[in-house]
Amino acid sequence: MSEKEDIWKIRVQLTKPVTWPPLVWGVVCGAAASGTPLCIGTCKIDGLCFKTFPGNFHWTVDDVAKSLVCMMMSGPCLTGYTQTLNDWYDREIDAINEPYRPIPSGAISENEVCKLSVITQIWVLLLGGLGLARILDVWAGHDFPIIFYLAIGGSLVSYIYSAPPLKLKQNGWSGNFALGASYISLPWWAGQALFGTLTPDIIVLTLLYSIAGLGIGIVNDFKSVEGDRALGLQSIPVAFGTETAKWICVGAIDITQISVASYLLGAGKPYYALALLGLILPQVFFQFKYFLKDPVKYDVKYQASAQPFMVLGLLMTALATSH
């Protein structure tokens, strides 16, 4: 592999592509929540009677293209910006927790040339994401550039999450909630604003769901206890100890989803509420089977087993709110 290929491989590693899918899924949920063609009214096609009503997202080339651009904005561009920024400001703590990352491993040195390279990547990804957001607003015919302002807000949250003086991640509560909102609320809002109207009740509901994202963030904190403690970060496992933190984590995930199911039941959508409850049960099973036994040893197994049910529950909630 040539030196040029090595550099681009390192650039991609800095953006952590493994973290992009949740943001892409959030856009899908937002598009679903905006309303998809469902069967309510009536029409006749070839002599057959169907029940239909027009939704906001349609399986047309135009709408699919908009979705893909929104996913590109949310995933590779703005999540890539966030992860590169985080790697730069976390280089000291990564030297303890994740020494294989590009900067602490020495793949990228901290000399002036490499520092400029990383900072350039941060700016290119940020401006690329903001540019795509503005294009989406024009494409959607928005009078008010809501997606652009959502992108600016999300980028600001990403900055204060990683960078001093605020560095939200120094506190387990504020840091993980910001992380949860970034992974659940922001891409949902972007997808819904692209195809429909972002309403106050959806904003509240998705922020509530972000508490479950806080729980997912705590899952990733257990393997970083040594470095967090050494550099004074008050993650939940550091602040409360491993045993208490385990229960805070699963409580945030489960109670949030049960609360959302209760909301759906109260909103007159019992089938969606029951479906969401059904998707919570396997998550609880895997919590006891893996996570609560040893959150460090089984964190990957737990997330691989339980998170698919959580993200399906997110889509179920989106579909429930769409009509």
Automatic annotation (TrEMBL):
<dbReference type="GO" id="GO:0016020">
    <property type="term" value="C:membrane"/>
</dbReference>
<dbReference type="Pfam" id="PF01040">
    <property type="entry name" value="UbiA"/>
</dbReference>
<keyword id="KW-0812">Transmembrane</keyword>
<dbReference type="InterPro" id="IPR044878">
    <property type="entry name" value="UbiA_sf"/>
</dbReference>
<feature type="transmembrane region" description="Helical">
    <location>
        <begin position="202"/>
        <end position="223"/>
    </location>
</feature>
<dbReference type="InterPro" id="IPR011799">
    <property type="entry name" value="ChlG"/>
</dbReference>
<dbReference type="InterPro" id="IPR006372">
    <property type="entry name" value="Chl_synth"/>
</dbReference>
<feature type="transmembrane region" description="Helical">
    <location>
        <begin position="271"/>
        <end position="292"/>
    </location>
</feature>
<dbReference type="GO" id="GO:0015995">
    <property type="term" value="P:chlorophyll biosynthetic process"/>
</dbReference>
<feature type="transmembrane region" description="Helical">
    <location>
        <begin position="142"/>
        <end position="161"/>
    </location>
</feature>
<dbReference type="GO" id="GO:0046408">
    <property type="term" value="F:chlorophyll synthetase activity"/>
</dbReference>
<keyword id="KW-1133">Transmembrane helix</keyword>
<protein>
    <recommendedName>
        <fullName>Chlorophyll synthase</fullName>
    </recommendedName>
</protein>
<feature type="transmembrane region" description="Helical">
    <location>
        <begin position="173"/>
        <end position="190"/>
    </location>
</feature>
<keyword id="KW-0472">Membrane</keyword>
<dbReference type="InterPro" id="IPR000537">
    <property type="entry name" value="UbiA_prenyltransferase"/>
</dbReference>
<dbReference type="InterPro" id="IPR050475">
    <property type="entry name" value="Prenyltransferase_related"/>
</dbReference>
<keyword id="KW-0149">Chlorophyll biosynthesis</keyword>
